Amino acid sequence: MIDTSVREKYTAVIGLEVHAQLLTKTKIYNTDANAYGHSPNTNVSVITLGHPGTLPKLNKKVVEYAIKMGLACGCDISREQIFDRKNYFYPDLPKGYQLTQDRTPICMNGHVTVFPKNGEPRDITLNRIHIEEDAGKSIHLAGETDSLVDFNRAGVPLIEIVTEPAIRSSEEANSFLTEVRKLVRYLDICDGNMEEGSLRCDANISVMLKGSTTLGKKVEVKNMNSIRNVQRAIDHEIERQIAEIEKGNTIFSETRTFDAATGTTAGMRTKEELNDYRYFPDPDLSPLIVSEEWLKEIEATMPSLPNDLLAKYVKEFNLPEYDAQVLTDTKEIAAYFEALCGKTSNYKAASNWVMGPVKSYLNDSNENIEDLSVTPENLAEIIQLVDESKVSFSAASQRLFPAMLKGDGQSALATAESLGLIQDSDSDSIGELIDEVLAAFPDKVAAYRKGQKGLIGMFMGEVMKKSNGSADPKITNELLRNKLA
Amino acid sequence: MNIDKDLLNKIAHLARLEFDESTAEEMMADMTKILTWVEKLNELDTDNVEPLTTMSHEVNVLREDEVKPHLSHERALKNAPKKDSDYFRVPKVLE
C-alpha cells in the first residue's frame, strides 16, 4: 500500500470499453442461433466458419438494438455507415478479420450519468458505440497439446460502448457499469450477466501528477468478470502505477490481466508488441443508411428509462431520492411500482410497501416480482384498506399480505374479512367501549384530568382489549381524548 | 515507397507467411515496384471524392432476425484437419 500523501499527488484517468452481447435470436451476419450453453460447434454455418465464397448479411435487429442504446445515452445516431475489417490471426477468428465499425460507429458522443458512492453524480462522456461480431471460444486445457475451439459464440452480435478517458475513480467505474447494465436490461437488449460474459469490460488506466496536462501511458486491463472485480482491478492498477513511478520506473503501454484470486494484475506475454489491425472498409456488407423514418420507428419503441422514472418519482411523487433509486433499480420492480401507482395515489405508502414487505418477501423466497401472487391491484386494495382505517398497517403487513401471498385469488377486502382483520371504526360502538372503560377506572380518569396525560396509553390498551384488537386506533385515540377532556 | 528489411519482416509476420531469406532482396525490389505503381493513384486529386467502399449500389441489405437451418455439427467439423467429437483442435495457443 502506498502512502495516502503520495497517492494524493496523483490523479487517475480511466476509460472503459464495454462489450454487450445482444439478445437477438440469430447472429449478426447470418442466421445461426445466438444461444448460450449449447453443445460446442452446433450453432455454426459456413459463414460463421469463414468458408471461402460466403457472404455476410446484416441482422436488422442488431442495428435497432444498438440505436436504442444510443438513444438511451443521448448519442448522435450516424445516418450513413459502413463496416470495417479488423485484421488479426487467432484460431477463434475463422475469417482472419473481425467485421466491426471503425470509421463510422453507429452512435457517437452521448453520455451515461454515474452516481458514485462517495461523490457527486456526473455525466461520463461516451466516445462511441459501435456494432461488431464476437469471436469463438478457445479452450486451453492443462496437459493437452491442442487448444480446443468452439465457434458457437463466433458471430454473436456485440455493441461496444467506449467512454472518453473521463472516469476519475474506481467508484465512478463501478457506477458506470451498474448504470450501463441497468440500461441494457431496461432496453431488453442484453441480459447484463458479467459472470457468463454477456457483459464484459476492459479498462484503460493511466495516472499523472495532479495539475499535469500530459496523460500518462495507458495500461489496458482485461479479465474482470464482475463489477466488483473491475473496481478492484482499477484500484490495484492505480496503486501499482504510482508505486512504479515513485520508484523512478516508467510505465509502458501494455495489456495486463487481472487475477481475481490475488486482486493483482500481471503483464500478458504478448509477442505482438505492435498490433497492426490494418483496418479497411469491408466490401461484402452494403452501406447502412438510417432514415429519419426508421429512427422515428425505433424511438417509438423506447421504454421508460431508469433516470426518467427516478426523476418522476422524486419530482411528481415527492419520494425521497433513496426510495426512487431502489424502486428503479430493476426494470421489473419499476414496472410493478408503476402499475401500483396507476391504482393508488398514495405514492409514499406504495413505495413503503414495495421497499418493505414486498422486497423482503422477494429476498427470502427468491421469487421474481413478476410472479408475485399479490398483484399491483391487490396491493393497491391493501393500501386503500389501511388508508380508510379498515385494517391497521401492522395487521395488513403481518397477516393480510402474507395470507394474500398464498394467493387464493380473493380480494384484499374479502381476505381481511375472513381473517377478522377489519377494524371497528364505528364511533358509536367504540364510544360505548370507551364509556365502559372510563366507568371502570374512575380514579385513573380523575388523575388524567389532573394532568397525568400518560395514562392515555393505559385507556387505549383497555379499549383495545375489550374490542379484541379490532378498534381503529386512530378513531379510538380521538374519541378517548374528547371524552376525557 | 521503399520496402526495407524491417517492413518486409513485419508484413510477413502479420500475414503469418514464411519466406526464404535468400529471396529477401528480390521480394523487397518486387514489392517496392508494386507499391510505386499503385502510388500513381496519388497523382489524382480525390479531395472531394467519397471513398468507394463497395462495388454494389445497394444499401441496407438487411435480414430479419429469424433462425434458419444451418450446418450440422458433423458437417461443420468434416473438413477440419484436426478435431474430436465436439471441437476443432488447433496447435496450442497461449495468451
Automatic annotation (TrEMBL), chain A:
Biological process according to GO: glutaminyl-tRNAGln biosynthesis via transamidation; translation
Enzyme Commission identifier(s): 6.3.5.-
GO MF, any single term: ATP binding
Keywords: ATP-binding, Ligase, Nucleotide-binding, Protein biosynthesis
InterPro entries from the UniProt entry: Asn/Gln-tRNA_amidoTrfase_suB/E (IPR017959), Asn/Gln-tRNA_Trfase_suB/E_cat (IPR006075), Asn/Gln_amidotransferase (IPR018027), Asn/Gln_tRNA_amidoTrase-B-like (IPR003789), GatB (IPR004413), GatB_C_1 (IPR042114), GatB_Yqey_C_2 (IPR023168), Gln-tRNA_amidoTrfase_suB_CS (IPR017958)
Top-level EC class as recorded in UniProt: ligase
Reaction(s) catalysed by this chain's protein: L-glutamyl-tRNA(Gln) + L-glutamine + ATP + H2O = L-glutaminyl-tRNA(Gln) + L-glutamate + ADP + phosphate + H(+); L-aspartyl-tRNA(Asn) + L-glutamine + ATP + H2O = L-asparaginyl-tRNA(Asn) + L-glutamate + ADP + phosphate + 2 H(+)
Subunit structure: Heterotrimer of A, B and C subunits.
Role of this protein: Allows the formation of correctly charged Asn-tRNA(Asn) or Gln-tRNA(Gln) through the transamidation of misacylated Asp-tRNA(Asn) or Glu-tRNA(Gln) in organisms which lack either or both of asparaginyl-tRNA or glutaminyl-tRNA synthetases. The reaction takes place in the presence of glutamine and ATP through an activated phospho-Asp-tRNA(Asn) or phospho-Glu-tRNA(Gln).
Stated name of the protein: Aspartyl/glutamyl-tRNA(Asn/Gln) amidotransferase subunit B
Source organism: Fulvivirga sediminis
Lineage: Bacteria, Pseudomonadati, Bacteroidota, Cytophagia, Cytophagales
From TrEMBL, chain B:
Record keywords, A-Z: ATP-binding, Ligase, Nucleotide-binding, Protein biosynthesis
GO molecular function terms listed in the Swiss-Prot or TrEMBL record: ATP binding; glutaminyl-tRNA synthase (glutamine-hydrolyzing) activity
Catalysed reactions, as listed in the record: L-aspartyl-tRNA(Asn) + L-glutamine + ATP + H2O = L-asparaginyl-tRNA(Asn) + L-glutamate + ADP + phosphate + 2 H(+); L-glutamyl-tRNA(Gln) + L-glutamine + ATP + H2O = L-glutaminyl-tRNA(Gln) + L-glutamate + ADP + phosphate + H(+)
Domain of life (superkingdom): Bacteria
A UniProt-annotated Pfam family: GatC
Function: Allows the formation of correctly charged Asn-tRNA(Asn) or Gln-tRNA(Gln) through the transamidation of misacylated Asp-tRNA(Asn) or Glu-tRNA(Gln) in organisms which lack either or both of asparaginyl-tRNA or glutaminyl-tRNA synthetases. The reaction takes place in the presence of glutamine and ATP through an activated phospho-Asp-tRNA(Asn) or phospho-Glu-tRNA(Gln).
Quaternary structure and interacting proteins, as annotated: Heterotrimer of A, B and C subunits.
Name this protein carries in UniProt: Aspartyl/glutamyl-tRNA(Asn/Gln) amidotransferase subunit C
Organism for this UniProt entry: Fulvivirga sediminis
Gene name for this UniProt entry: gatC
